[in-house]
Amino acid sequence: MEPMAWNWPSGEDEFLLRIGELEALDDLTAAGVLDLRYRLLQGHEQRGGFENAPVKVREVLSCLRLGLIGAGMDRQTADRKVKQAFEDGDIAALNLLAFTIISRAFAAKEHDPLGEEKAGGEKAESASPASTETARPLASPRRKSRK
User: Fold this and answer.
1) Which of 95, 75, 76 is CA-nearest to residue 20?
2) Taking the CA atoms of the chain, what radius of gyration do you get in angstroms?
3) How many degrees, rounded to 5, is the angle at CA 123 between CA 117 and CA 128?
4) pLDDT at site 145
5) Are 130 and 72 in contact (CB under 8 A)?
6) What is the Cα–Cα distance from 35 to 39, expressed in whole angstroms?
7) Which end of the chain is more exposed for a tag (fewer CB within 10 A), N or C?
8) pLDDT band for position 43 (50/70/90)?
């Protein structure tokens, strides 16, 4: 997977969570990475915004730092950029970025596209009629009632 570029309070940088960074983030959170993602989303959907997410600042900053490291940045530079972003930015933007980084780590991979394929790499055709076709009405075995 390729790193994603993001313009954030510390400038434009690349972020990527690989398996090592995901495992480290698992260890730094109470219930793991997927729970952190859920709680970030919960703030947006149930509490009115990412700034209201029930997460620890340390969890969000760790996600950002590990995302920078996963994309190739050295640890000291990543630490400095995360601290700068926290001082210069707002928590809603940082929470949104953490949510996006985690979501992208678990998205469909390029080597595993969505949908099924036949042997030989061709897409399997659906047995159901196309959505633009209209089905002909079936003849009813009942007689129509007279009113």
Assistant:
1) 75
2) 24
3) 105
4) 56
5) no
6) 6
7) C
8) confident
Neighbours of 118 (CB within 10 A): 9
Give the model confidence (pLDDT) of 70-114 as tens digits.
Answer: 999 999 999 999 999 999 999 889 999 999 999 999 986 666 665
Task: Quote the CA–CA distance of 15 and 22 in Å, as a whole number.
Answer: 12
- What are the DSSP E strand ranges found in the chain? 4-8, 11-15
Tokens of 102: 């985690």
Mean per-residue pLDDT of the chain: 82
Alpha-carbon gap, residue 33 to 95, rounded angstroms? 14
Contact 1, 109 (CB under 8 A): yes
Strands 4-8 and 11-15 come out as antiparallel
Helix 19-28 and helix 33-46: axis angle, to 10°?
A: 70
